[in-house]
Write a structure and sequence with these properties.
Chain lengths: 123, 123
DNA sequence: CGCTTATTTAAGCAAATACTTAAATAATAA
DNA sequence: TTATTATTTAAGTATTTGCTTAAATAAGCG
């Protein structure tokens, strides 16, 4: 951790800045994990996929493509990205793959889903 | 809203899919707003900036650049993006600009910050 | 086995991102 | 006014993203 302060502003509270640095430093892996989830969810299509899986328990790529009016490869590539991040899993039933949320990894999303649903009422 | 279902899978519950479509449709603006926030927060640097502003009330670009060990233009461009989205505001004090969170727009982040802080303890 | 269906994967590409460096503003102070 | 400091803006660029189309797997069925 670099400790030098380059800001020459007189008011700069160097102690405060150093404290911020070390706080963030101790949380590095936590930030990495959260950024992973938020960057996955910070896309309109993927947020809707996650929302749908939360609502319907499980869905296949074909269903999602239908609902979102998108091509199946486009959906498949989004699912792959979410799956690679560890937020969904798949189970096969014949030719069909069913995707579902890994609840333990997506608890933060519940609050987000609730907010989406409640702001719907207002707007 | 398109209502055609292209999936030929026998098990596909068309009624369920149509219901999903119309549900998402009624929430479109809500999803748009949430995606805006999550795409802003879904970047390591910006998530840290938001976290820092939550922790310290207000900071100038120079301080943030120091804390995150990044160039001032890089930070300034992130701040601009967050400000354009309406999640932070700035006030000037002489040459210095102080940025702070627009609390009413960033309530969802509180849960995220709490999660970051608590998973720090575990890990 | 071939044929259809469900899905993934790969290749290609336009658009968006996130930096860098250098130049432009803005405010203060000599 | 010129110089200094804080910040923004602009231009350039390498990387990433998110789609498209076409080809490759995988499973079920005649």
């Amino acid at each position: 951790m670099k400790l030098e302060i380059t800001c020459t502003r007189a008011q700069a509270d160097h102690k405060q800045l150093l404290n911020c640095k070390s706080t963030l430093n101790s949380m590095e892996s936590s930030f990495k994990n959260m950024t992973k989830l938020l960057s996955i969810a910070g896309n309109d299509v993927r947020l809707k996929i996650l929302f749908l899986l939360n609502m319907e328990q499980e869905l296949c790529p074909c269903d999602i493509a239908d609902i979102l009016d998108m091509s199946i490869p486009a959906i498949s590539q989004h699912l792959r990205k979410i799956k690679d991040a560890g937020f969904i899993i798949s189970r096969r039933e014949g030719q069909t793959l069913y995707y579902s949320l890994v609840k333990s990894e997506t608890e933060v999303l519940n609050n987000i889903f609730t907010t989406i649903k409640s702001s719907k009422k207002i707007a």
